[in-house]
Amino acid sequence: MELSRGRPAAALPGMEAESPGEDYESLPTGASLSTHMTAGAVAGILEHTVMYPVDSVKTRMQSLQPDPKAQYKSVYGALKKIIHTEGFWRPLRGINVTVLGAGPAHAMYFACYEKMKRTLSDIIHHGGNSHLANGIAGSMATLLHDAVMNPAEVVKQRMQMYNSPYKTVLECIRAVHRTEGLAAFYRSYTTQLTMNVPFQAIHFITYELMQEQINPRREYNPRSHVLSGAIAGAVAAAATTPLDVCKTLLNTQENMALSSVNISGHLSGMANAFRTVYQLGGIPGYFRGVQARVIYQMPSTAIAWSVYEFFKYFLTKHKLEKRAPY
Fold first, then answer.
1. Which one is predicted more confidently, 318 or 179?
2. Contact, 237 vs 22, CB < 8 A?
């Protein structure tokens, strides 16, 4: 495989064209499995850790019956209030379990996506880029990603909630296992998939579509990766917010919310979650935290794609240079 020099991509109206001095190399199309997994793991960890405080706010804002002390009007206001009343490090509680899950989850996620995308594109549109293939590949990769991340999400969101009784990740894991059993760690798995499959399908299709428009030569162009990732994340996040609200309810099993509609025991399944959300908040209830979700996803996906494309490019180029004869 050869990394050929290429000209900067044509810019969309309103987007600055690259300066004459900027020149980028073509992205590798045949990177190894280990390269995809390494690049994916680094991208996933950075994506989740950099934006973790906003994710904590999103979880709080999606609460259907929050404590009066935990009602927020904006992302910035919520973050400021949490730090002021609960301590500087409070928005980062649970970040360690997210890091442990994000590495392997994103390694499998990107490796599966790249493999499936190439295979399906050759079948559907030989020699070209198929948006259908991109959507299917993203959906398939989500099955692996969520199998690893779902237990981490359960623990993370319980620790993010206001007045959470858990001091450490290990304490949370033990308490959930003791009181609700192992099934609790996958109670929201079907809802997670129901949300993430369309989310990732929309996300990958939008990203690849944006790349076709602003980076048609598929060069390593950080600006195009950041812009495409941010737009893809925003579109997918807004479209799937109702499912995210249901997932948060299943993960946290809010006592105040369930008792207010006379539900005892534990909610299970997407249908029950959808019905409960509607009982508690009507149609607007499905869009609680949409602002925080979009604000979280835009930089998250921008970080993920720019870091992933950089490491894929860097690692592949490094391997080629090592093989090159002196």
1. 179
2. no
What are the angstrom distances between the C-alpha of 1 and each of 95, 120, 192, 215, 324? Answer: 39, 21, 38, 20, 12
How does pLDDT run across 136-170, given as a tens digit for each residue? 998 999 999 999 999 999 999 999 988 899 999 99
3-state helix, strand, coil in the chain (%, to 5): 70, 0, 25
Measure CA 85 to chain center: 28
Q: Are 262 and 24 in contact (CB under 8 A)?
A: no
For residue 5, the SS3 value is strand
Q: Output phi, psi for 180, to 5 deg.
A: -125, -10
- Nearest CA to 154 among 126, 131, 127, 177? 177
DSSP 209-247: HHHHHH-TT-B--HHHHHHHHHHHHHHHHHHTHHHHHHH
Cβ 304 vs Cβ 47: under 8 Å: yes
For residues 208 and 263, what is the distance between their CA atoms, to the nearest angstrom?
44
**26: DSSP letter:** B
